[in-house]
Amino acid sequence: MKLLLLCLGLSLACAHVEGKPNVVKHNINMTKAAGVWYSVLFASDDREQIEENGSLRVFVQTLQVLDNSSLYYQLHIMMDDGYNTVKVVETNYDEYIMYHLHNVNDERNFQLMELYGRDKDLSQDIKDRFVRYCRQHGVPEENILDLTTVDRCLETRDAKETQGEEET
Ligand SMILES: *[C@@H]1O[C@H](CO)[C@@H](O)[C@H](O)[C@H]1NC(C)=O
Ligand SMILES: *[C@@H]1O[C@H](CO)[C@@H](O)[C@H](O)[C@H]1NC(C)=O
Ligand SMILES: *[C@@H]1O[C@H](CO)[C@@H](O)[C@H](O)[C@H]1NC(C)=O
């Protein structure tokens, strides 16, 4: 498994709350979104890519905001090439965050949605929001994987944390 670091330039702006209280969908303050997250749900319009040994199984470890306002993701990812754009869909900072990734490569394009939790699992309510978002973007429910039931490399991760290689 390869460790790949993705950086995404992003400007910080004021938070704007819309819909459900505390849910931020626009001008997300990435400083508040930084820190440790766990992958909870995972969806793609190309299900093979996210199944076991698929080329796009991504397990987030930490998210940091660098001094230059770039985002720094530390991810476990099995993917060799292609160009990715990552967008934060919504978050409430202290429970969950949703990402929408578009991958463009030589063979085909596909999209990937991810739901991360500050804890290892999330409430059904939040999972349902994610399922709705995926459906609205053409990803059916059967293409959504629950990562709380599979090996998320947490052992590797915990071992690393013990060694003090991670920062918050
Ligand atoms: C921000 O800094 C990081 C680490 O030094 C660098 O990799 C990244 O390219 C920089 N981002 C921009 C937009 O300059
Ligand atoms: C973003 O959040 C950080 C940490 O809570 C805070 O210091 C900063 O003022 C916020 N930025 C904006 C633009 O609200
Ligand atoms: C994934 O790869 C591992 C190691 O090569 C193998 O043991 C496992 O059976 C594979 N799983 C699937 C679903 O192909």
TrEMBL record:
Report the InterPro entries cross-referenced here: Calycin, LCN2/LCN12, Lipocalin, Lipocln_cytosolic_FA-bd_dom
Presence of keyword Secreted: yes
Does the record bear Lipid biosynthesis in its keywords? no
Q: Which UniProt keywords apply?
A: Disulfide bond, Glycoprotein, Secreted, Signal, Transport
Provide a GO CC annotation, any one: extracellular space
- Annotated Lipocalin/cytosolic fatty-acid binding domain residues: 81-148
Pfam families per the record?
Answer: Lipocalin
Subcellular localization is given as: Secreted
Q: What is its main location?
A: secreted
Q: For this UniProt entry, which residues form the secretion signal?
A: 1-19
GO terms for MF: odorant binding; small molecule binding
Q: Which family does it belong to?
A: Belongs to the calycin superfamily. Lipocalin family.
**Name under which the protein is recorded:** Allergen Fel d 4-like
Q: Where does this protein come from, organism-wise? A: Chrysochloris asiatica (Cape golden mole)
